[in-house]
Amino acid sequence: MPDFLFRGALRDIDPDVYELTLLEAERQARKLILIASESTAPAGVREAMGSTFQNIYAEGYPDDETRHMPEDEILDYDSRLAHFRRYSDPRYYKGVEYADIVEALARRRCAELFAANGFGPDQIQVNVQALSGAPANNAIYNGLVNVGDTVMGMNLLFGGHLTHGSPVNRSGKLYNIVPYTIDPVTQKIDMDEVERLAKEHKPKMIIVGYSSYPWAGDFKRFRQIADSVGAVFLVDIAHYSGLVAAGFYPNPCEHADIVTSTTHKTLRGPRAGMILAKEKFGAAIDKNVIRHPGRKPTDGKRHHCHGRGIKHV
Predict the structure, then answer these.
(1) For the whole model, what pTM was predicted?
(2) pLDDT confidence bin for 134, thresholds 50/70/90
(3) Could you count the other beta carbons within 10 Å of the beta carbon of residue 207?
(4) Please, which pLDDT band fits residue 188 given cuts at 50, 70 and 90?
(5) What confidence tens digit (pLDDT) does each residue in 19-31 have?
(6) For domain 118-289, which CATH number applies: 3.90.1150.10, 3.40.640.10, 3.40.50.2300, 1.20.1250.20?
(7) How confident is the model at residue 300 (pLDDT cuts 50, 70, 90)?
(8) Residues noted as catalytic
(9) pLDDT, mean of residues 271-300
(10) If DSSP states are collapsed to H, E and C, what string results for the chain?
């Protein structure tokens, strides 16, 4: 009987694709192309991305209580697996007991990495399921503002980002975008003009973040402006999150309502996105990254998987 399973290494199964991976590795090693949104992931990151976790679905989220657990408690397998057997979890699929642990670990490490200036990790609600920075920002739009609402973001031509209101992006098509730019003399954001525009247009959300702007943002002043008009304050740190984590760039977490980032640029992690939010925004954001079946019951009832939902018995 023919064996239709894929067995062996890539070079044996598909030598053409294997050769392309070697050519791409050589290209990256021999050529320097300074694209701000690209970086080089270490071998350990690429090893993790090729692990057996890629074989499973893990739609939904780990238990909320793990958000406030220190790392040693999250990694206490006996305790976490016993809890999973007793209560299951708010996921669509089963077989995710170890995926719960690794995602809870990622969320906690992210919160601890970006906590700063008296703003602790327990005050940051993290979502690590966005596929990249654009879907992370989309979840914010979907969860916190309505189609047609006014949003302020930096003009792409002056250093902003596509997802901050460019007319060629869904953000520019679905929302009333009021862009801000830079002072032609100082080449920096004119904060007085930002304040004037905010008071005139009353945006529901103000976005700070750049793809090609060399100065740090005045997050404290932006916070004051957002508060003066009742706007949600979003900071997109995708291009410099590694500098924030290392302490070489001002940390916006203490000022912003939500902070978004990719993980594959200056953080040199896997190709993905993350969202750090104040707790009051967390539920709305999580629901717009992925809808999940709900929280586990607290009355001791058992969970059984029933199709893609949960049946209580």
Answers:
(1) 0.88
(2) very high
(3) 30
(4) very high
(5) 999 999 999 999 9
(6) 3.40.640.10
(7) very low
(8) 57, 59, 236, 262, 265, 271
(9) 79
(10) CCCCCCCCCHHHHCHHHHHHHHHHHHHHHHCCCCCCCCCCCCHHHHHHHCCHHHHCCCCECCCHHHHHCCHHHHCCHHHHHHHHHHHCCCECCCCCHHHHHHHHHHHHHHHHHHCECCECHHHEEEECCCCCHHHHHHHHHHHHCCCCCEEEEECHHHCCCHHHCCCCCHHHHHCEEEEECECCCCCCECHHHHHHHHHHHCCCEEEEECCCCCCCCCHHHHHHHHHHHCCEEEEECCCCHHHHHHCCCCCCCCCCCEEEEECCCCCCCCCCEEEEEEHHHHHHHHHHHCCCCCCCCCCCCCEEEECCEEEEC
- The residue assigned the tokens 């906590």 is 115
The residue among 255, 152, 251, 257 whose CA lies nearest residue 195 is 152
Residue listed under structure tokens 């976005």: 207
54 vs 44, 61, 99, 160, CA distance in Å?
A: 15, 16, 10, 34
pLDDT band at residue 269 under the 50/70/90 scheme: very high
Average pLDDT score over residue span 24-39? 92
- Residue 279 CB contacts under 8 Å (≥ 6 apart), including other chains: 123, 125
Task: Return the closest-CA partner of residue 260 out of 118, 120, 138, 103.
Answer: 138
Judge whether 175 and 186 are in contact, CB under 8 Å.
no
Residues 6+ apart with CB under 8 A from 95: 56
User: Rounded to whole angstroms, how far apart are CA atoms 235 and 258?
Assistant: 6
pLDDT bin (cut points 50, 70, 90) of residue 35 is confident
User: Which residues contact residue 61 at a Cβ distance below 8 angstroms, ignoring those fewer than 6 apart?
Assistant: 90, 91, 103, 129, 286, 290, 292
